[in-house]
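Folded chain entry
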Amino acid sequence: MELRQLSFFVAVAEELHFNRAAARMCIAQPALSAHIQALEKELGVRLLDRSTRRVELTRAGEVFYDRAVRIIGDVGLSMDVARSAAGKAARTIKIGTVYPATIGVLPAFLSRIGRKFPDVALHVTSGSTSDIIRGLENGQINLGFIRPVENIGSLRFFSIAHERYLLAVEKTSALALRSEIEIEDLRSEKIIAFSRQNLSYSERYFSEMFETHGLTGNIAYSCDDTFSLVSLVSAGLGIGFSPEWTKDLPNRGFELRPVRGVDLKIGLGVAWSKEDPTASRDDIIDIARSLVQPGRRIPVLNPTPFYDRGIRS
């Protein structure tokens, strides 16, 4: 079994399409298929179910994918450790980020990293907090801008900012004329809420709040992400609670208003693995910590440190 075979399999498992995986790995599609077949023959199990319409992982394929990702990550981490021991700088810094950081603290961080390490390549990928944590654990990501988590095992985290959630209302609605809104004002409105299998902290908060105030029956529309929520609000279909960073979206058709009694603030911070020699370098962590220097305003987000356990989004 060769390491490149594992890389080829990971690409197919993530793309679930041989042509796309072949393009991603810069290899001809027939050659990629041959490598996957050789890997399955060596393992003695089928990793993929193929048809003319789609490609799917078998149960064995799902298990093997998790192990393959970890093996590839361990090899990359071992190379970084060896280079670090020899006094050589990292060649690439891989950063994972949730969206609020992308338009908030990330640009300042990237600017400082670029000046400090002009010869180091930067790769940025977006995802959920749980996705980024998995990337940190398997070595695919060096540094993550995520929602707060606890320091468990090799995972390390510090908070750098927090954001408020406010009520998004369509620009021409009567509620947009109010400086502050009461909970009772929501009873005559259609509410837009998130509907995902694994609710984040903020979604659980609002679900419980709607139930407490008898507003669950007002939920008329649901969506999976913040952009969809503010689009529905802008279309005049209802109201919904949105993070404060959405006020800086261009050409927005909604306004954000505080609701008396609703004061949800959710943290944002930096996470890394203490076993990763790239992320654990003092200068990189110091650059991240510098984003919360007293008196410095972080774009979009409030720079006051905030910690809220167990948030995933």
